[in-house]
Design goal:
Chain A: It is found in: Membrane. The complex is a heterodimer. By secondary structure, chain A is mainly α. Chain A is 57% helix and 3% strand. Chain A is elongated, with a radius of gyration of 30 Å. The chains are: A mainly alpha, B alpha+beta.
């Protein structure tokens, strides 16, 4: 019987359940959760909505008239129903985008870091000798790449909030789980594999049987470690730069600051003073000074960075050119509009939902005269432009979806 | 009446009867907190990507050509003297060998240089299949002891095990790296057209990094008499002479012996070369190593047969990019050309297909 209800309900565009108890509200939500591959959201404002809010994947409580019970049991809460649009189309979307970018980048960074050691294993007798300095390994995730990633996942936006409202279709990638799926993960692993090959074998080949420009050693373990770790850090930083679509001042500061901190730290750690103070902890003395003044070291770093980054740029450019996603198109439109700004659209009038509805509270005395007095109906009706002209939700299965334009009409006053 | 608690305010404020407002939880309307920070929003358009490809191509190709030409102008000569081949002069030395042999084995290899070597010539010894980058090997040293710390001299660190003590006496310098120090002696003789053998002067100073020689490695104690400074220690197991007899010159004796320092700077790869001696240039007229016949005389002390390693001597000039390594030049030329070619391909694709997509309407 339940499945019949669900199947019938899913054939409709909207379903209204009225005169339901709180338990039944929760049961409806659970029914959808159990049998459909969908993420459910429940929004309510009263104590009777609490079980429904708790049953859904995402529970939203509206604070205000009916008290705070809904708010206390919800994941998100705000004061008015209309904020739901902003929650979904702006904040939810940005949050999904940021999380996915962060995850993909984090996996890329760490897999690259680890695969380089894998390749080195072939050349060090598989003795698990690290190709980077131990201090670098400690500080890599903690200091050198922590803040840039943090700024990416805090500030990144693809389009701003106004544009998010103009094109609700931008919400579909989140519903289709496009940004971080098994496929995306496999691509990340392959990308890391390629980067690690470049990051190990280019320095290896460039330094094979080479010496400094005064004839002395440059392919010692310490100089090679310094070269490999600097190449890695520059490559992952540039990759982060490519992933960032919204460069605030904080992003710039954190990215360039982290690179500068890296160079400052290595020059400090490889200095005479640190070595003489704590000899066994800082054995890399002199390495930075002796290898970073060699032109072929810098040329190797340049080659490695370019070779790591260029395929990514080419691939992304081709993808935007030939198979642009909704995201790419909207961003292109944003840029075009910035160049020639459009005529400013009239700001939508605020809906005052609590005043316009024609229901009456029947559970408590005292609200009847609100309805009968017609106080809230004095505002003249304005026509509102339609939000959605035509959208197709991926969840609709049978009929093409369309929405009527809703216009305000004067309600006839109810007779007491 | 309950109607008084009903309020038409929009922003979540709740007015209690009797005046006053409950604390407003609304966050500040600043650009930072409302995520309206001014930002640069780049997108990959043809106007930025295509010129970038062309510019990179145009920069890399000349750099690559410069590197390749420089590398080709470096003169290098390599001679393998392991002696695995029966016809090699060093075959006997490579076969009959043990560390404890007191009588050093010598062999002489003749070779000839087709081209004269100008300017400073650097003489390297190279080893193959020698894993100086093995993890246990790299750990096996005591940097405090090598820095002249007397406590560490008498108590080598645990990392040096099992090369830390020999019959209760501490080993100086301890560890597997020091123990396996390269100890072949190589001499070069020029055979001039008359037939006389002229020994070529080899400089043994200035082969290690300045920071190594002056900061990292120090002899223990301020005592110029190194024999007494190293009192109470013993030489590494595989060495013939103790560390304070490495050289008669006091500046090159003990831990600051440059051959020792060069060996202690472990190589990153299993095939490596280390600077052995420098042949100084004479003047601007005569080449340092003229064309002709030479002999390399080897005092063959270092056994490599057990791990199928190989030994070789390399004579090389250098340039601003170091030794002879054509890889970087070839790589730059290749990457530059691929980049340029890719730029052309992307330009064609953009021309044919690009314009139709950007004017497409966003589907609803």
């Amino acid at each position: 019987m339940e499945i019949e209800l669900l199947r019938t309900a899913c054939m409709c565009q909207t379903v209204i359940c009225c005169r339901v108890t709180p338990l039944q509200k929760a049961q409806v939500v659970e029914l959808v959760k159990k049998y459909k591959q969908a993420v459910t959201l429940a929004i309510g404002d009263g104590a009777n909505d609490v079980s429904m809010i708790k049953a859904a994947h995402i529970g939203v409580g509206i604070s205000g008239q009916e008290g705070m019970q809904a708010v206390l049991s919800s994941d998100y809460s705000f004061a008015q129903f209309r904020y739901l649009q902003r929650l979904l189309l702006v904040h939810g979307r940005w949050s999904y985008l940021r999380m996915c970018k962060f995850l993909r980048y984090f996996f890329y960074k760490n897999f690259t870091f680890t695969f380089v050691h894998f390749w080195y294993g072939f050349f060090c007798g598989f003795s698990a000798q690290t190709v980077f300095d131990e201090w670098f390994i400690t500080l890599f995730n903690l200091v050198y790449t922590a803040l840039p990633v943090l700024s990416l996942s805090l500030f990144d936006q693809d389009v701003n909030d106004w544009w998010s409202f103009q094109y609700p279709q931008l919400y579909t990638p989140g519903q289709l789980n496009q940004y971080f799926s098994k496929r995306a993960f496999v691509y990340t692993v392959l990308h890391s594999g390629y980067s690690s090959l470049v990051l190990f074998f280019i320095p290896w080949a460039a330094m094979y049987d080479t010496v400094r420009d005064d004839g002395k050693e440059i392919v010692d373990y310490q100089s090679f470690a310094l070269l490999a770790q600097t190449c890695l850090l520059i490559a992952v930083s540039i990759q982060l730069g490519l992933d960032t679509h919204y460069w605030t001042a904080m992003n710039q500061f954190f990215l360039w600051g982290s690179l500068s901190v890296y160079f400052a730290v290595i020059f400090t750690m490889y200095s005479n003073g640190m070595f003489l103070t704590l000899t066994s902890s800082f054995p890399f003395i002199g390495t930075a000074r002796n290898s970073l003044n060699q032109p072929n070291v810098w040329l190797t770093m340049l080659l490695t960075s370019v070779l790591c980054v260029l395929p990514v740029v080419a691939y992304r450019f081709l993808r935007i050119l030939l198979w642009p996603t909704i995201n790419d198109k909207v961003r292109y439109k944003v840029r075009q509009d910035k160049v020639l700004p459009p005529t400013p659209r009239r700001v939508q009038a605020r809906r005052t939902s609590t005043r316009r509805s024609g229901y009456a509270f029947s559970h408590a005395q005292g609200y009847g005269d609100l309805v009968t007095s017609g106080k809230f109906l004095r505002r003249t009706p304005k026509s509102r432009p339609a939000l959605f002209s035509q959208t197709d939700s991926p969840l609709a299965q049978t009929q093409p979806q369309f929405y009527r334009t809703i216009s305000e009409r004067e309600e006839p006053p109810l007779s007491p | 009446m309950m109607a008084s608690s009903y309020n038409a305010k929009e922003d979540g404020h709740v007015t209690v009867p009797g005046g006053g407002t409950i604390q407003n939880k609304k966050p500040d309307n600043t650009a930072f907190k409302q995520q309206r920070l001014p930002a640069w929003q780049p997108i990959l358009t043809a106007g930025t990507v295509l010129p970038a490809f062309f510019v990179i191509g145009l920069i890399f190709i000349p750099i690559g050509i410069g590197l390749y030409v420089t590398s080709n102008n470096i003169k290098e000569f390599e001679i393998d003297y392991t002696g695995t081949d029966m016809s090699s002069p060093c075959f006997n030395c490579s076969q009959s060998f043990s560390w404890n042999s007191t009588r050093p084995c010598t062999c002489a290899l003749p070779f000839s240089l087709e081209q004269p070597f100008e300017s400073n010539v650097f003489m390297y010894y190279g080893l193959s299949n020698f894993y100086q980058n093995h993890r246990r090997y790299v750990k096996s040293r005591d940097d405090s002891q090598l820095n002249g710390d007397t406590t560490s001299l008498m108590n080598p660190s645990k990392e040096c095990e099992p090369y830390a003590r020999n019959e209760k006496m501490p080993i100086a310098p301890c560890g597997a790296i020091a123990n396996s120090m390269f100890n072949d002696t190589l001499d070069l003789y020029y055979i001039d057209p008359n037939g006389t053998r002229i020994q070529i002067p080899l400089m043994k100073k200035g082969i290690a990094w300045w920071t190594d020689k002056h900061v990292k490695f120090r002899n223990p104690g301020g005592n110029p008499n190194l024999t007494s400074a190293f009192q109470g220690t013993t030489k590494p197991i595989n060495w013939r002479k103790p560390v304070y007899e490495l050289d008669t010159d006091a500046e090159n004796n003990g831990f600051i012996n440059e051959d020792f320092i060069v060996w202690m700077r472990t190589a990153a790869l299993p095939t490596f070369r280390k600077l052995y001696r420098i042949i100084q240039k004479k003047n601007n007229m005569t080449p340092t190593l003229p064309r002709g016949n030479y002999t390399l005389e080897v005092t063959y002390n270092y056994p490599v047969r057990s791990f199928e390693g190989r030994k070789r001597v390399i004579l090389s000039t250098i340039s601003w990019m170091g030794g002879k390594n054509p890889f970087l030049g070839i790589a730059y030329i290749t990457v530059g050309s691929v980049c340029f070619f890719l730029g052309v391909v992307l330009l064609i694709i953009h021309h044919k297909y690009g314009s139709r997509n950007n004017t497409a309407d966003i589907p609803n």
